[in-house]
Design brief:
The protein has a six-stranded antiparallel beta sheet with strand order 1-2-3-4-6-5, with helices on one face. It has helices at residues 4-14, 17-28, 105-119, 169-184, and strands at 35-40, 49-59, 62-78, 83-95, 124-136, 148-159. Helix 3 packs antiparallel against helix 4. The chain has one domain. It is α+β, with helices and mostly antiparallel strands.
Length: 208
């Protein structure tokens, strides 16, 4: 049986130089210690070339939030993207149950995404996505469990390409980690990073 990692290396070697440079920047990025991040299998049908990362925000032994970030590349360009690269993400976290009914919750969560990009001065276009909230109540044999609520952000945007046709993927990854930290309830990594609206009583170290 072929080694899947060897197959991935072969595919990367055959990829265009701008994509390889963008992936190298993702791999070299330095992130805040509360975020554990690892490469994962990328989808094959979304673009000719793709690279994916998955991350978890950890506080002690507790997972506060998790997500996935995918870098897509189509050397021929894509009309819907208005570029040849695209960032695609899924971010989710648990919330205190009473917050799920807040009518401003979807707007605030979307502002976390756009605010995280803007706070780092990143140029991007064609943002789109959804914010979904769900609540679970337990009955019968599960009635002892407290109600649980979850928020989920699915989004994509086009990172503007710089020198050599390569976007600043390391900074986009950093902004994505800012979003993860925001939804997990962590304080900003540095003064000036908190340019987005905060939501009180999120499940996290500040809401206990």
């Amino acid at each position: 049986m072929d080694d899947p990692k060897e197959g991935e290396r072969d595919a990367m070697e055959a990829a265009p130089l701008p994509f390889r440079a963008a992936v190298d920047a993702l791999r070299a990025a330095r992130l805040r210690p509360q975020i554990e991040i690892d490469p994962t299998k990328a989808p094959r049908r979304l673009a000719p070339f793709a690279y994916a990362l998955e991350a978890t925000v950890v506080d002690g032994e507790e997972d506060l939030a998790d997500g996935r970030l995918i870098l897509l590349h189509d050397p021929a360009g894509h009309d819907a993207w208005q570029g040849s690269f695209r960032m695609v993400t899924l971010v989710r976290a648990e919330l205190e149950p009473e917050m799920a009914s807040d009518p401003l919750l979807p707007d605030v969560c979307w502002s976390w995404l756009t605010g995280a990009l803007q706070a780092r001065g990143l140029s991007y276009g064609e943002p789109s996505g959804t914010v979904t909230r769900a609540s679970s109540h337990y009955f019968g044999g599960l009635s002892e469990r407290p109600p649980a609520s979850q928020i989920e952000i699915r989004a994509s945007w086009t990172p503007r390409e710089g020198l050599g046709g390569v976007p600043d993927t390391a900074s986009h990854l950093a902004s994505w980690c800012d979003l993860l930290a925001q939804i997990a309830g962590l304080p900003p990594a540095a003064p000036g990073d908190a340019s987005v609206v905060t939501l009180p009583q999120r499940r996290g170290p500040q809401s206990r």
